[in-house]
Amino acid sequence: MDRKIYGAILFIQAIYTGMFLLSKVAFDVGMNPFVFVFYRQAAATVFLAPIALFLERKTTPPISFLICLKIFMLSLCGVTLSLNIYGVALKYTSATLAAATTNSLPVTTFILAVLLRMETAKIRTRAGIAKVMGIVLCAGGALTIAFFKGPTLKLLLHHHLFSYNGEVQNSAASGNSWIKGVFLMLLAIALWATWLVTQNRILKSYPSKLLCTTLQCFMSTIQAFVFAIALARDPSEWRLGWNVKLLSVAYCGIVVTGVTFYLQAWVVEKKGPVYLAMTTPLALIFTIVSSAVLFGEIISLGSILGGILLVGGLYSVLWGKSREHKIAASNTEDIEQAENGSKEEEIVEKQSSIPNARIQHAASPV
After folding, report:
1. How far apart are the first and last CA of the chain?
2. Which of 110, 121, 228, 273 could be cross-linked to 38 through a Cys-Cys bond (beta carbons 3.0 to 4.6 Å apart)?
């Protein structure tokens, strides 16, 4: 089971790497982020709806109005608002900062999980110290990648594999726009963390993961359409040709929103929200390498050092969580053994009391 979970996590982060690269190119060539979110969610809904109806129509539990309302709010906060705000923030800042601030997701998710009593942070134990240190390392790695460049290390490639028309917006904005973009990016990450934590509770009351994912995509499509029709009124912004815009919409809608959301729901159910969130640094490392190989981007020393810190933080938290699971499992075994031992003692006492009762009855004069 653990191998399947680890494989699913690596697959999820590889898919997110492709999403970051394609959406980056699409935004750079002029695609509106609000229209992008609507098309992406609509594609995911069209892809998932027939699959969900075919696989879970007979086993799907009835959905109540309260569950439907919870899924609607989950879609609004964790999908629609998060993706729209993230796209706008990317316009105000740089792609490097966008990729780096995504790695603050584990910190935010861990804090929310602790506040909701879904996770514990026992600082006096080794496991708790390892988890806190992992969070600090992840935050330090993200800040290193964002703000420290250092010497550049160019790969020994004379020609990169792909190119596209349009200049990549690597230069960061300045002044108030930069500050606004940073706050918007952090807000999007906070909404995403809320989605990770809240989804775990909704799945406990409505365990149909595929249908729950489909309903989220459908509701977020309606929500994203309202945002897009209000904020993107130019008809030319809605046109999709046979170019990278259509490719990014299809990939992000079908592969990312359709497939990854379902895999994430499965991983969250098995391991919890913080476990999934702590693997997000892998997507940044994959993105750095893929950008250099595919688009010829130059890798800086800060990116390498930050990646090392992120990987160290990842394994520190995973070690802490695995140690907590081992301690909990050993405690459970001790309790079961103690209960079994007490039951055996009661049986022995009952058996020993039977012959004593017979002897007393035989010695009685009556």
Report:
1. 67
2. 228
Which residue is associated with the tokens 């904005």?
173
Residues 137 and 311 sit within 8 Å (Cβ to Cβ): no
pLDDT tens digits, residue range 93-134? 766 666 667 777 777 777 777 777 777 767 778 888 888 888
Matching residue, tokens 């569950």:
67
Alpha helices (runs of H) in the chain, residue ranges in sequence order: 2-28, 33-56, 65-75, 82-92, 95-101, 105-115, 126-147, 176-205, 209-231, 244-250, 261-271, 273-277, 280-295, 301-363
Show the tokens assigned to 108: 């935010």
- Residues in CB range of 51: below 8 A, 6 or more apart: 210, 214
For residue range 56-92, list pLDDT tens digits in order.
Answer: 777 777 888 888 898 899 899 888 999 899 888 877 7
- CA–CA distance, 339 with 356 (Å, rounded to integer): 26
Q: CA–CA separation, 324 vs 225, rounded Å?
A: 44
pLDDT digits (tens, 9 = 90+) for 315-338: 787 788 777 777 777 777 656 666
CA dist., res. 177 & res. 58, Å (int): 52
8 Å CB contact between 209 and 262: yes
